[in-house]
Amino acid sequence: MTLPSSPSLVLDLDAFDRNVTSMARTIVHEGGKRWRPHVKAIRAPDLVHQLIAAGANGVTCSTVGEAQVMVDAGIRDVLVASQVVHSSDLDRLAQLNRDASVMCAVDAPAHVLMLAAAAKRHGVRLPVLVEVEVGLERAGTEPGQEAVALARGVHAQPSLKFMGFVAWEGHVTRLPDPAARPEAIRSAVRLLTCSADLAREQGLPVQIVSCGGTATFLTTSFLSGVTEIQAGGGVFGDLRTRETLGVPMACALWLHATVLARPTPQRIVCDAGWKTLPHYPVAPRASGLSEVLHMAPAAEHLTLTLADGASQPAIGERIVFEPGYADAITFLHRTMHATREGGAPSTVQIPAAR
After folding, report:
1. Mind listing the pLDDT tens digit for each residue in 274-301?
2. So which residues are the signal peptide here (predicted)?
3. Residue 328 is part of a domain; what is its CATH number?
4. Whole-angstrom Cα distance, residue 153 to residue 111?
5. Peptide bond into 281 cis (omega under 30)
6. 183 and 271: one domain?
7. Model pTM greater than 0.85?
8. Is residue 43 a contact partner of residue 34, using CB atoms and an 8 Å limit?
9. Same domain, yes or no, for 158 and 279?
10. Whether 79 contacts 61, CB under 8 Å
């Protein structure tokens, strides 16, 4: 395959399709949940539409800018799974709800007042989820009566529509023993679902109970009380998904770089610096090389030190890397070069969130 530039982000569509099918089968067909994949890693609307065709009902975003990209691409059911507080973002969120349903999360009465004011300014009714703290120790109100009280405050605002509850149980990925994670997931999600049950008992209309990322969907897809799962980025099958989290996906995303120099048999310099190939939170892996002792990234260059010298790859030839974490690489690129066995390469655009 001849690429128009280097370094280039390359998507194996055959592997991507298998991963999408596998995730949809688990979440939708076996687990019976709605699928609202998080698109902070996927980003490209053309790929998101493939997930919707496979069974997803909507998408999850991190920011209003990401939501804008999705709505502009014709996606009408969106969750911004974080708090929106900047005045321009509040106005944009309200405006998006003229043509789509774009929910956001709250965890304090101040958020409720901000959203209600923005909704009134623009003559819309904003859909809202209450975020519950289940152990991650990031955003989220305390589970139980505190979460229900906040939900009641949302429901009391005429310009807001209370939709339910949301949480992210991502702290379980920090557990060193993978065997301990399923029970930790169940315990965390129980705080979310019990809050939803308590709200229903007190007469609140809970439609959505949302959680479950790539790290946890193999468990959360089968938990009672959960209505939708947000797993998304795992469709790329990066190293973190496969090896750190133990989720059986195929590697679908690659970074192709070019050898710029070989000052010694053990030292290779290529054009995959940290501007195009991140090393945090999981380092990439060079494919097809002998043992790599060290990788030293700079802005535009990556220096690899090999255990043993070899004549290949030579200057001008290609090195292919498996990304460590898809969330950390796709936003660095504006295009992916999509390939399929037996087919001609195509280009997938990755719009910048605006």
Report:
1. 999 999 999 999 998 989 999 999 999 9
2. none
3. 2.40.37.20
4. 11
5. yes
6. no
7. yes
8. no
9. no
10. yes
Residue 79 · residue 103 · CB < 8 Å? yes
Alpha-helical segments (H) within 225-351: 239
Each residue of 28-55: pLDDT tens digit? Answer: 999 999 999 999 999 999 999 999 999 9
How many CB atoms within 10 Å of residue 147?
A: 26
Length of the chain: 354
């936003």: which residue's tokens?
331
Residue pair 227/210 in contact (Cβ under 8 Å)? The answer is yes
Please give the tally of structural domains in the chain.
2
For residues 343 and 353, give the distance between their C-alpha atoms in angstroms, rounded to a whole number: 30
Residue with tokens 């133990």: 246
Domain identity same for 154 and 232: yes
Domain boundary among 197, 215, 241: 241
pLDDT tens figures, 106-128 = 999 999 999 999 999 999 999 99
Q: Is 128 helix (H, G, I), strand (E, B) or coil?
A: strand
Q: 327 is in which domain, residue-wise?
A: 253-349
Same domain, 230 and 160: yes
Q: What is the 3-state secondary structure (H, E, C) of 19-72?
A: HHHHHHHHHHHHCCCEECCECCCCCCHHHHHHHHHCCCCCEEECCHHHHHHHHH
Of 217, 241, 265, the last residue of a domain is 241
Do residue 221 and residue 268 come from a single domain? no
CB 191 within 8 A of CB 134: yes
Separation of alpha carbons 268 and 311, rounded Å: 11
Statement to judge: residues 274 and 344 lie in one domain = yes
Does residue 172 share a domain with residue 282? no
Residues 261 and 237 in one domain: no
CA distance 264 to 274: 23
Burial class (CB in 10 A: 0-12, 13-18, 19+), 345: middle
